[in-house]
Design brief:
single chain; 211 residues; alpha+beta; L-fuculose-1-phosphate Aldolase; eight-stranded mixed beta sheet; 7 helices; globular; binds the ligand O=C(O)[C@@H](O)C(=O)COP(=O)(O)O; binds zinc ion
Length: 211
């Protein structure tokens, strides 16, 4: 099986799994994957991640030109902005996962570091999560704002919208997005309680061990 066929199947399977577990809804969310020759496969615009067709995925060349398949996600520029700043990124996941979206709409969160280090796994998979100011979906300024943060952050949270997460592979990007969503859920569950988060030393130790 060719690299591209495997990649197409992986996008379809990942989309089905995320949608089936309620991690995004309707036709929200988009996925992309970088192929070895520098081109990209992306989910088409206005499709359910639960119902992707491998033959209709959008293909873009290394310059971001749409070369085959259905019209790409309106966030293709945002995905490309992430890849351009992160040469090691192999995939990008964007979802409207409920708890992450809820946190992205809270008035009093720290835009430089949205979620506290509640667990080691969050620190290992996500790290420091900045909030990207609100822009309408698909707005070129949204892609620009993500691009500005992307060299330092593989995961960002779009205000009143949802997470965007890059990873070395589609699995890595997906695991990190799921970890972000679960931590957002824990954060909301713990509202109003005195919380013992990891200390700065504990976070530094995790960064040293797990990069
Ligand atoms: O929120 C939006 O409109 C987009 O960011 C999105 O999640 C789905 O858009 P398409 O990928 O263009 O369907
Ligand atoms: Zn979206």
């Amino acid at each position: 099986m060719s690299e591209e066929t495997r990649a197409r199947d992986a996008l379809v399977e990942t989309g089905r799994s995320l949608f089936g577990r309620g991690l995004t809804f309707g036709s929200t969310g988009n996925l992309s994957l970088r192929l070895g020759d520098g081109s990209w496969l992306m989910t088409p615009t206005n499709v359910s991640l639960g119902d992707l067709d491998p033959a209709r995925l959008s293909k873009l060349d290394g310059d971001g030109r749409h070369v085959s398949g259905d019209k790409p996600t309106k966030e293709s520029f945002l995905h490309i902005a992430m890849y351009r700043e992160r040469p090691d990124a192999g995939a990008v996941v964007h979802l409207h996962s409920t708890h992450s979206v809820a946190v992205s709409a809270l008035a009093d969160i720290d835009p430089d570091d949205v979620l506290p280090p509640i667990t080691a796994y969050y620190v290992m998979r996500v790290g420091r999560l900045p909030l990207v100011p609100y822009f309408p979906p698909g707005d070129p300024d949204l892609a620009g704002a993500v691009g500005k943060l992307a060299s330092k952050h593989h995961a960002v949270l779009l205000a009143n919208h949802g997470p965007v997460v890059a990873g070395s592979s589609l699995a890595a990007a997906t695991y990190a997005t799921e970890e972000l969503e679960e931590t957002a859920r824990l954060f909301l569950l713990l509202q109003g309680r005195a919380v013992r988060t990891l200390t700065e030393d504990q976070v530094a130790e995790l960064r040293k061990r797990f990069g």
